[in-house]
Design a protein that fits this description.
globular; BirA Bifunctional Protein, domain 2; about 20% strand; 6 helices; about 220 residues; 3-stranded mixed beta sheet; alpha+beta; single chain
Length: about 220
């Protein structure tokens, strides 16, 4: 939220956060509580957090071995198309999967990226004043048993997949991150520059001081 607020106040740099979460289930704005198949207390006993959040979409899982991406972009002239933005997010993931010779597919009924064995990339966003928040979750080495706790994305009768399952081997996350940065930059026509969390905090603080705004540092996350 802090980065989005800073962008609304004139912070010019677009940011892509790439990270992994601890086991967490999130429910989007259009979610159905019946799609959580376990009591919240039992969920907590399994060490899984639960959050209602303001992205689009239904229920999904985030956890270790999953690449979660938060593009915080100010969409420019020619980019101000919500459906077009979603298709670009899908394309960036499809291009990444192709690097590993995995065929990523679209489904005309459902947003996200699919394979012939199930959904591999979930997406849910929030766009305000053409500044994007939230993003995607790609199953890389994810423990897919967590999806038994929910109806993934509220879609009944469709499975989930991971790169590890499809390739029958563990995939190194740093390698996936490097490939994704390149594909994201190509699809969104952005020049990608890796920075640390400390450097991003410093950039935000400088902007806030210049604008006369008291700023707080964002929570810990892997930032590229």
């Amino acid at each position: 939220m802090m980065i989005c607020d800073s962008k609304k106040r004139g912070f010019s740099k677009d940011v892509l956060l790439l990270l992994e979460h601890p086991p967490t289930i999130t429910m989007g704005r259009s979610g159905n509580q019946n799609h959580l198949l376990i009591d919240r207390r039992e969920l907590a006993s399994k060490g899984v957090d639960y959050w209602n959040i303001d992205r689009g979409g239904d229920i999904t899982f985030h956890g270790p071995g999953q690449l979660v991406g938060y593009p915080i972009l100010e969409l420019q002239s020619g980019e101000k198309d919500v459906h077009g933005y979603m298709r670009k997010l899908e394309e960036s993931l499809i291009r990444l999967l192709a690097v590993y010779e995995i065929e990523g597919l679209r489904d005309n009924q459902f947003t996200g990226v699919w394979t012939r064995e199930g959904k591999i990339g979930a997406m849910g966003v929030h766009i305000s004043r053409w500044i994007t928040r939230h993003g995607f979750a790609l199953n890389v080495n994810t423990d897919l048993s967590y999806y038994n706790l929910i109806v993934p994305c509220g879609i009944v009768g469709r499975g989930v997949a991971s790169m590890k399952k499809l390739l029958s081997r563990k995939v190194e996350m740093p390698e996936v991150v490097d490939h994704y940065i390149r594909e994201f930059g190509f699809v969104f026509d952005r020049r990608m520059i890796g920075i640390s969390q400390w450097e991003l905090n410093r950039e935000l603080q400088r902007h806030s001081e210049k604008a006369g705004i008291h700023a707080f540092s964002p929570p810990n996350a892997g930032i590229v």
